[in-house]
Amino acid sequence: MLTIANTTFRSRLLTGTGKFSRPDIMQAAIEASESQLVTLALKRVNNTAKQADPTLTILRSLPVTLLPNTSGAANVDEAIYAARLARELLGTSWLKLEIHPDQRYLLPDPIETLKAAEVLVKEGFHVLPYCSADPVLCRRLQDAGCAAVMPLGAPIGSNQGLRTIDFLRIIIEQATVPVIVDAGIGKPSDACAAMELGADAVLVNTAIATARDPANMAYAFARAVACGRQAFLAGTASQRSTADASSPITDFLGALS
Amino acid sequence: MTVAQHMLAQNWDDIRLKLYSKTSQQVRAALASPRPTWEDFLALISPAGEPYLETLALKAKKITRQRFGNTVSLFVPLYLSNLCANECTYCGFTMSNRIKRTKLDKQAVANEVAAIKAMGFDSVLLVTGEHETKAGMAYFREILPAITPHFSFVAMEVQPLDTCDYRALKQLGVNSVLVYQETYHPQRYGHYHLRGNKQDFSYRLDTPDRLGKAGMKKIGLGALLGLSDWRTDSAFTALHSERIQNTYWQSRVSVSFPRIRPCSGGGIDAVSAITDKQLVQLICAYRVFLPDAELSLSTRESPWFRDNVVPLAITTMSAASQTQPGGYSEPSAALAQFSTEDTRSVTEVTQAITQSGLEVVWRDWLPGFGCEV
To answer: Which of B141, B125, B131, B75 is closest to B103 using CA atoms?
Structure first.
């Protein structure tokens, strides 16, 4: 079981709500993913006097915990403003903290993210910050009281896979809070690899939402995440660059008393 | 060196020659490149690139879907005024054109806002004409508080202003400003703009820099396709866009593709008309060159064209547009800036979008983001 902020989840796959072509397709994908923690951008929530936001209505009908995110915020003030609004509007203290002033690659701003995390943790939010795969930054976020850290595998939406794998390995090794690999996971094998590495969970959105058959892809991701987790728990055998044949020397060494 | 200074240092004839000399081999290399450069963009929009349209369109579509998902954002233009203190030979608002001039007062604006909100829009583009004294900052300060609280995203198409004015607009709730250079050919620019402040080519060229310095969240660029050779103008626009994006990295670039349309008073014939096929080539080349840019398509284009092009590369489109002040609450075609081709209702446009497998995004911004100065 995955435990974040004293809440347990059976699923280690977090999903999102953006980029789907229709709300019913999104719903089918989330259901197939068995995800229990689903993020949505507060900036997209379109509640009007006449009609509740269709995405929100669907999410409320599913057995999932909402994870509102501050996507679009470019600095600490905007993120804090969005977080407070999310709590007010959605009645939850869960928060995916995203601050990306860079408009091209949407890379997270480490300085603003840490500052915002420090404030929001004190205000009682369960802060899950989207951040660079920087081991020191992840420790600082953890020390600030974040409920988990969400280092990126590659630029968001890029589907490039685990390009930051060497740093993810260090982050996982050092973390005392759950590590959720976010961004860049392009296919189920990437998710599986992250879980084999020891990540506590992964978040996947683009790779599911833009697949030809999102629900089937979501199902595949769920299987891959479970598979990777099982492999991690089983303890993967170490790698070698050559075959491991016995040699005359091995025989000799083995014969020594 | 500012981006505008870099643009002024470019030679029109050299770029034109380079563009028209591109070969099939260079087009194929551009299509195969994982990170296309501006030189690749020139190849993609060149005559040599025309036979490769299908490959280009497929590539553009793939990039668009990956970057933006299966969505397209809708906005609507709100014309605040048709006052103009410029003489531009191609525009229906040009000062010598004897049309009824009007500027919406607070009540008229409230009526328009109510009509637009009833249509479902949450993102609006304010179009002001270009009249510094009658439709300038004093008017905007008076009128914007009646508009910005009702929309999550507010863009403006307004005459070039100083950096401090852009900062003031941000505080008033404006998130994006669009200023088109019309043409990057300085001499031809002079031929089209006969009177008024718009004659100042360099000040207009410097506008995206001032917007970037003011921290405007979205900066709109574009050339009016047909005023000069459309390929060369597009080469300049693309270079300008890329430089602005890289220099003012916290702002986002938006590119539009207006073609010369008939207007009241007749307007002019295009010097270099761009065909439908070439416009698709241009839009797709932009997507490949600037994968993250907002590409916008207006109701100047026909329903058939829009329905087919939007899924390939467009991220933002207008719908049910009225191009005369007061057009939503009191339609009167006599005042329009140009005639629109796609006259479908919002419902019809959203149905067409849904049929092409995309979801309409009405809201993609949190009011309050980007207002700091």
So the answer is: B131
Each residue's pLDDT tens digit, B113-140? 999 999 989 999 999 888 888 889 999 9
**B236 vs B184: CA distance, rounded Å:** 7
Q: What is the dihedral of CA A204, A205, A206, A212, to 10 degrees?
A: 100
* Residues of chain A neighbouring B369 (CB-CB closer than 8 A): 43, 72-74, 78, 82
Got the DSSP string for A121-157?
HHTT-EEEEEE-S-HHHHHHHHHTT-S-BEEBSSSTT
CB < 8 Å to B66, chain A: 157-159, 206, 210
Give me the domain span that covers residue B248: 3-372
CA–CA distance, B154 with B77 (Å, rounded to integer): 10
Q: Which residue of B has its CA nearest to A208?
A: B69
Residue at A148: amino acid letter:
A
Residues in chain A closer than 8 A to B252 (CB atoms): 103
At position A13, the amino acid (one-letter code) is: L
Instruction: State the complex-level ipTM.
Output: 0.71
Size of interface A-B (CB pairs under 8 A): 81
Give the pLDDT band (50/70/90) at residue B368.
Answer: confident
Closest CA to A29 of A2, A54, A59, A7: A59
Confidence of residue A203 (pLDDT cuts 50, 70, 90): very high
Looking at residue B31, its pLDDT comes to 96
Asked whether residue A157 carries a pLDDT value surpassing 80, the answer given is no
Question: Within 13 Å and on the Cβ side, how many CA atoms surround A187?
Answer: 3
Question: Residues with Cβ < 8 Å from A198, sequence gap 6 or more?
Answer: A169, A172, A173, A179, A232
Closest residue of A to B242, CA-based?
A: A104
B96-125 burial, b if ≥16 CB within 10 A, otherwise e? Answer: ebebebbbbeeebbeebbebbbeebbbbbb
CA distance to partner chain B, nearest, from residue A167 (Å): 25
Does pLDDT of B152 surpass 60? Answer: yes
Q: Strand A126-131 and strand A94-97: pairing? A: parallel
What's the CATH number where B343 sits?
3.20.20.70
Could you confirm whether A122 is annotated as catalytic?
no
Residues of A numbered 119-148 whose beta carbons fall under 8 angstroms of chain B's beta carbons: which are they? none
Report the residue of chain A nearest B64, measured CA to CA. A210
pTM of the predicted protein model: 0.84
Beta-carbon separation of A75 and B292 below 8 A: no
- Per-residue confidence (pLDDT) for residue A104, from 0 to 100: 78
Give per-residue pLDDT as tens, A53-80.
888 889 889 999 999 999 999 999 999 9
pLDDT for residue B192: 84
Catalytic residue (choose from A96, A115, A122, A187): A96
C-alpha distance from A233 to closest chain B C-alpha (Å): 33
Number of domains in chain B: 1
